Amino acid sequence: MAANPQMEELQAATGKVLASYAGYMNTWSIELGLRLGLFDAIRENPGISAGKLAETLNYDPLYTKVWCNATYAGGFIEKSDGGFALAPHMDTVLLDPDFPMAAGGTAFTMTALREHMVSLRERFRTGERTWWDRTSIEFRESVGMASYPFYVRLVRHAFPKMPGVQAALEAGGRVLELACGTCRGLTLIAKAYPNAKFTVVDGDSESLEMARAQLDIAGVEGVQMTHSPLEDIEFEDEFDVILINVSLHEARDMKKVVENAHRALKPGGWFVVSDFPFPEKLEALRTIPAQVMCGIQYFEALIDDQLLPASHYAKELGAAGFRDIETLDVSPIHAIVYGRK
Ligand SMILES: C[S@@+](CC[C@H](N)C(=O)[O-])C[C@H]1O[C@@H](n2cnc3c(N)ncnc32)[C@H](O)[C@@H]1O
């Protein structure tokens, strides 16, 4: 029988929609597997059966079997010695937070987005927005986990390519992190550059409480904290390096925030903007990283902003008087724009 081109197209279109649903369910399976320690237990006991996995973790055997089948179907675990083992590289990609492309924490953000996606049913009509202080603790915590790999990439890949910044950090310079959130990332920087002295600012007081707890757990001492909108900070000629990670796009008044950063730096100090590089053109959105960023844009819209192309930050830095402005493309979801006072 001759192939029916229209039927083939319909099958392909149906497959595209079903693949999206499969991805959504895979996200939940990853989230459950990380949260409940199922992946960890499989890593520690390769070849473990679903029944034994349930027994080891004291979990319900039926739920555990359903999870094993789902994560096998998704390709995150595979058959081994009559049971299951992690699929190749999943220990790195899902379970190693220090891997620069670590993707495990993102599952928490994707699932924590549900509260926001549900709220959009009504907000499409009302246009109502929200802000960080009205999001769940789970959401704020998950954002900190998902953004941690940005800091890993900063420390491992980006700072070494920015000799002036690296030298200031190594020499024990004064560092200001704007919009520090839960400070999960700052703990990494503080440990990598033990001589540097840190001040952090965030506009959400509960995030700062979570940050203090995070720093205490990590044993990082001496971090000064300021609760303030970035638009209102009044530091002057104080810092050698100012960093802002995945947050400058959220500024209510970006020009003011960049000017404030300029004023807060000592002459010759560095401003490092690390953020998602949202594609400039609609046609560039048809990639997996862009689809993930488009998902994040729902939350950004809820807090009344949007992720922006890296070129936008370069222009803002130029307008505020920064010089030697450079852009580093670190990964498809990570660009750094930096300049000097
Ligand atoms: C996406 S989170 C990033 C937090 C942290 N940098 C990280 O990568 O985990 C954004 C943070 O910016 C803070 N923020 C956003 N806009 C702000 C503003 N205009 N003034 C002060 N803080 C702000 C929020 O409270 C939130 O903690």
Q: Alpha-carbon distance between the termini?
A: 71 Å
Range of helix content: 40-55%
**Unreliable residue stretches:** none
Overall outline: globular
Oligomer: single chain
Q: Strand fraction band?
A: 15-25%
Main structural class: alpha/beta
- According to DSSP, the number of beta strands is 9
User: How are the strands ordered across the major sheet?
Assistant: 5-4-3-6-7-9-8
What compounds are bound to the protein?
S-adenosylmethionine
Counted by DSSP, the helix tally is: 14
Most strands sheet: 7 strands, mixed
Strand-and-helix sequence, N→C? HHHHEEHHHHHEHEHEEHEHHEE
Average pLDDT, rounded to a whole number, is 97
Short description, anyone?
This protein is of the alpha/beta class and 341 residues long. The protein is built from 14 helices and nine strands. 38% of the residues are buried.
Helices and strands in order:
Layout: H1 5-35, H2 38-44, H3 50-57, H4 61-74, E1 77-80, E2 83-86, H5 90-93, H6 104-112, H7 114-126, H8 137-158, H9 163-170, E3 174-178, H10 184-192, E4 197-202, H11 205-218, E5 224-227, E6 239-245, H12 254-264, E7 265-275, H13 288-302, H14 310-319, E8 323-331, E9 334-340
Parallel strand pairs: 3-4, 3-6, 4-5, 6-7
Antiparallel strand pairs: 1-2, 7-9, 8-9
Helix pairs in contact: 1-4, 1-6, 3-4, 6-8, 8-10
The structure holds S-adenosylmethionine.
S-adenosylmethionine binds at residues 132, 143-144, 147, 150, 179-181, 185, 202-204, 207, 229-231, 245-247, 250-252.
